[in-house]
Write a structure and sequence with these properties.
The chain contains three helices and 21 strands. By secondary structure, the chain is of the alpha+beta class. It has a six-stranded antiparallel β-barrel with strand order 2-11-14-13-12-15. Strands 3-10-8-5 form a four-stranded antiparallel sheet, with no helix packed on it. A four-stranded antiparallel sheet has the order 7-6-4-9, with no helix packed on it. The radius of gyration is 47 Å and the shape is elongated.
Length: 380
Amino acid sequence: MKKRLVVFLLLPFIALSCGPGGKKEETPKGVARVKMRTVRREILATGAVKPKVGAEVKVGCRISGKLEQLMVQAGDPVKVGQLIAVVEHKDLQAQVDKLVAVLKGLKVRKIEDLAETLHAIRELKAKLALACLELKRYSTLYKREYVPKDDVDKAQRDVKVLEAQLAATRRQYQSINAKYDQDIGQTKAELAEVQVKLSYAFIHAPISGTVSSVSTQQGETVVAGLNAPTFITIIDLARLQVDAYVDETDIGQVKPGEAVEFTVDAFPDRVFKGEVFTVYPGAVIRDNVVFYDVAIDIKDPYLGLLRPEMTANVTIIAGERKEVLTIPNKALRMDEKGGSYVMVKEGKGWKKRYVEVGWSSEGYTQILKGIKEGEEVGVW
């Protein structure tokens, strides 16, 4: 009889502490008001800071030899065109000097030989002019019968002989000129080829930037083969981008021009702004998951802060809805069937109400249906 009395006395307390089905209802820890806010469609991705195309250059050597001088070390700033290394080149310099001397000698001999031939042409012209006068004089005298016909014929032969000699000497002048031009041209080509090889011994920075690595030290020998051996890498730290790897399920929402926010582990409290400028068509497969590389142009100043290969936590803003009903994410609950609901303040109590949700961003979720602006919901 006493046991039945105890159970009867406890029943009201059990009924007050249990909801439908005998489950205990939790009480919200706080209250939030339903407000109008702007929400965004956010696509989260992980990426890395990378040099842009052409911002990282591997500098190599196109000739073999000992590295005589190395003017830079890792971390040094360089300007485009700056001399950064010199490879031994005495043999190439000797070839250049020899060909320069040969070329100079050819030019001098050409001038001398052409001058000599030109002098002979001038003498023949003078003799021909005199012979023509003699022929004219003898022709006049012959008409007056002062000289025999043989004298006129001899004068004519002299003119023809001198004309032939003059023509031959002119051809000789052209032949000499052409021969020297050919020899000089060939020597110039050989000289240019050796000078190009010599220029390979002097290595200049192809871009302005910072030396990121040096793999060959002064005094070591570099061997040039089919591929020029790389021994210095230069990066332009002012030309960086972020490569974000977006899951294939989200890539359809990503388009060039969309705004981006990202952080790096080195500066977790600083948010950098960016913009999608291209989506590479090729897929990147990691652990059997398909991703796509999204290139992001960095809009905020970052020189001295961002470095290549820094891990970036990326948020791509794929859309924006302004002035929509929102509640804190902590106010949203889900039942065992996956339905979303909130606890709405009614008087001194709470009423469970199912809602239809939209986008979520920055700790708030859009509510499409189920509650009104100004109502109070419980926060858990």
